[in-house]
Here is the input.
Amino acid sequence: MLGFLKVIKKNKVIIFVALISISAGALIILTGMTLYKMRLDNLNVDENLNYNSYKYHYALVSEESDAPFWEAIYDGALDKGKELDIYVERTGCNLSTVYPLKDLMSMAIASRVDGIIIESNGDEEIIELINMADQMGIPVITVLNDEPSSNRKSFVGVNSYNQGQIYGKQVLELINKGKKNVTVLLNSDSRAASKKMIYSSISEMLAGKDVYVRSTNVNTQTTFSSEEDIRNIIRDNQNPTEVLVCLTAIDTRCAYQAVVDYNKVGVIDIIGYYDSELILSAIQKDIIYSTMTIDAKQMGAYCVEALNEYMQTGQVSDYFSVDLYVINKDNINDYLKTD
Here is the structure.
């Protein structure tokens, strides 16, 4: 009798475990079916989404050395693209890894975009990639730094000689106030001729004046290295500078910070580049003497227009000139009102 009761008890346990297993299996199946239905519902929703289609797809390629400036260029290109039914992509943006310009250009070519906008750095590899894109039927527009020896279709930028003359006029104003030692910051990692032309034009403007002009290469591989080089110039008491001419927004920002940190405000005058909020504020505080800015949105728009003209007609003007502005203490309020 005792053995019979044990058998019954054992069977009850088995049945109970079986019921739990069946219930768990049913729950898993029900959950799976629910998730599958939700996925199908989502797919149905996705199928009803409206996707924009564009006539052309262009890529904007740069090493983004001056991020705010390039954001403005991209905004101008994007807005103009929307007007012309063109999608403009910023190649390499928001990637976890920073890629060199040649890799970004290769990505754009591999994507088989309809056109490429690129700021060249003067490397032979970039010239070869521009020519490769052209052979594949992808027209290329250079911006800011030109590659006239390549097969690019057009250049959008400023005349470097005229830009140097405008810088030179700003330096002359400071020379007339008693400044004698001028330092122009160049980029050590760029073989592009544009900044060297700017320096030559500045030197020409100051020829015959009682002033010492020199150029100094700044390491632009990282913001930190650029900042360190500029701080060394500011701290140099053996060959002190009185006027610092900056040709990039990053150099201007670093020079501003160094002059403030080392209590050189009023001792060293900065002629800067670009019109960020920081730079404009520094002009109002008499920390930066003046700055030169390019209409970056206009530049981006011109790039898209140049590509679109070539795509439509098979030809385009060789050069598009972008407007230059000088901002100083005398006109900054008017500039801010119109901005």
Summary: The longest helix spans residues 2-47.
